[in-house]
Amino acid sequence: EPEVTQTPSHQVTQMGQEVILRCVPISNHLYFYWYRQILGQKVEFLVSFYNNEISEKSEIFDDQFSVERPDGSNFTLKIRSTKLEDSAMYFCASIRDRTLSYEQYFGPGTRLTVT
Amino acid sequence: DQQVKQNSPSLSVQEGRISILNCDYTNSMFDYFLWYKKYPAEGPTFLISISSIKDKNEDGRFTVFLNKSAKHLSLHIVPSQPGDSAVYFCAAGGTTNNAGNMLTFGGGTRLMVKP
User: Fold this and answer.
1) pLDDT for A20-29, tens place per residue?
2) Beta strands in chain A (DSSP E)
3) Cα–Cα distance measured from residue B92 to residue B26, given in angstroms and rounded to the nearest whole number
């Protein structure tokens, strides 16, 4: 069964550094999402992406964050200057066609640790 | 943001018995609801969903009930198995005024099924 994959599984970075988290959504899916879960807290929506543009973003998704689908398969989340509070699990998700189904399929996550 | 709440942080059930996980929501714009199961260090795995036009959806051992007037849904697992032990998240989304189909998650309920 097709799966969403994410790399790396764990990323450690120093405060102020840039990180790029990578996702490969399910191949025929058209809508892509990033969520995060800070330890002990809820899973929170960050951004949704369709047709090479952001369709919706949360308050968390400020100017330090950006998303890109550079090559038709990868979907990346960039944090320009990481802060300690960016430490979290970051999950990528995708839907094939949101007019037909609303079931988002999640990747295994990237644990980001900012020191 | 408490639009989706799971008031029980944990639930312990004997193998073979029924597990009932509950979820409440406040936003009447939500028109679909999903349950996800999550193991440690993995992403949420989709279990079952329900549209707001229905009050019940069944898939094998899993049944979701929706009470729109009470803004309440529940997940029933019958019979419970030790492999069902995980954290269960309720999530909600809306197709109206929701260009990106973002999901809003509850805080999760840890289910422990004892042999």
Assistant:
1) 999 999 988 9
2) 5-7, 10-13, 19-24, 31-37, 43-50, 53-57, 65-68, 75-79, 88-95, 105-106, 110-114
3) 10
How many residues are there in chain A? 115
Cβ <8 Å between B42 and A50? no
Furthest-apart CA atoms within chain A: distance in Å: 42
B1-28 per-position pLDDT tens digit: 579 999 999 999 999 999 999 999 998 8
Question: For residue range A3-22, what is the model confidence (pLDDT) as tens digits?
Answer: 999 999 999 999 999 999 99
CB contact under 8 A, B44 and A106: yes
Distance from CA of A31 to the nearest CA of B (A): 8
* Phi, psi values for residue A85, rounded to 5°: -75, 0
Q: Tell me the percentage of chain B whose pLDDT exceeds 90.
A: 83
Contacts of B32 in chain A (CB under 8 A): 102
Which of the 8 DSSP states describes residue B84?
A: G
Residue A44 Cα to chain centre, angstroms: 11
Q: Given this model, what pLDDT does residue B1 score?
A: 59
| Yes or no, beta carbons of A103 and B43 under 8 Å apart | no
* CA–CA distances in Å: residue A46 to residues A17, B62, B111: 20, 29, 27
Interchain CB contact of A12 with B (< 8 Å): no
- Give me A100's structure tokens: 């037909």
d(CA A34, CA A67): 9
